[in-house]
Amino acid sequence: MSNxxxxxxxxxxxxxxxxxxxxxxxxxxxxxxxxxxxxKLGRKLAISGGGRCNVTNRIPLEEMIKNIPGNGRFxxxxxxxxxxxxxxxxxxxxxxxxxxxxxxxxxxxxxKAKDVVEALIQKVREVGTDIRVNTAVKxxxxxxxMGHSVHLDSxxxxxxxxxxxxxxxxxxxxxxxxxxxxxxxxxxxxxxxxLYPTEVPVTSDEPFIKEKRxxxxxxxxxxxxxxxxxxxxxxxxxxxxxxxxxxxSGPAVLRxxxxxxxxxxxxxxxxxxxxxxxxxxxxxxxxxxxxxxxxREEGSKQIKNVLNKLIPERLLPILLERxxxxxxVTGHQCAKQHLRTFTEKLKAFHIKATGTLSIEQAFVTGGxxxxxxxxxxxxxxxxxxxxxxxxxxxxxHGYTGGYNITCAFSTGYVAGTSAAQHAQQDIVV
Length: 429
Hints:
Distance between the termini: 13 Å
Radius of gyration: 25 Å
Shape: elongated
Oligomer: single chain
Structural class: alpha+beta
Strand content: 15-25%
Number of helices: 14
């Protein structure tokens, strides 16, 4: 052990939070070692935002917190030190020009995630960080007095007074986040809250889904609501919905997914009702009047040929079936009451969700290291001195749209800064 190089800070995990932690610790003048079991750093960062890298979201702090349904209030402290505006300045100072897209999402002008990843890794190197890839951690021995030891698969052990665990959750395991850090956290005295998938497609065994009648069909700017067994809305999100061969996906569905899981567990039910409002900008009566006007105006035509100009063609037969409306009747033959029933289906298209895809297929992990055991201003463990956590291993999760990556960068920066200061105050001889 005495032959090994002594570090101030060891960062385990080279994702967004680990890279930012390594930079922040190195910037404080600490001697930093970054280890990652994969062959390249920033793999989850490289695939974020559909490969374009949604680096953060430029919305006000209060709105940001609302978009972090998993313990967002915890983020007030980290954001007071390092927030979305700091992240934007950081990357622009690295020469990565950013642009703002819908809902405040920030992307590199080049639309290339690799530009962001390469610039961040270069900055980590510039502050003197030693980087070791293809280096798996087998175990960690915690010793607050002599310094913590990180035991590598190679048999080597590396020591430092400060250790940062930034290994992610269990989502997107091909990027390296396979839940390794939970056992180390528990060894250090931490509790892990129940893990579950979030930002994940929803499953359904509705006949029209299983028959693939609408597979690949996207509905734009709709509202989707998760209901309790009595039909009361638990959560509503707006955005796009995509029908798949197993259920539903798309941004609005991903945002609702955690509420499907929680409702299923809370009410002990096989399926959870979802309602899609396909015309959220119009009231029931306004939409009925518009449809009624259209079918009467072209009264000699079959109503299905009038309605398919207003409603996706593949969805129309399902809506007509549910409304028990014969699409071959003409506008002159159609009773307004029948059209009212049809309109109700447009405003509340019912789908039974049976659950979601697995946590490995989710974009984000719900649950993790209990935040009550973490100091929010430093990301330091309340259980073990000199231990820090950042990123998705924590029980913090946001919606898609740059919120999770903002939490990763923010907690990473705070953890790195604090870990360096701790090591420099308490250098192990």
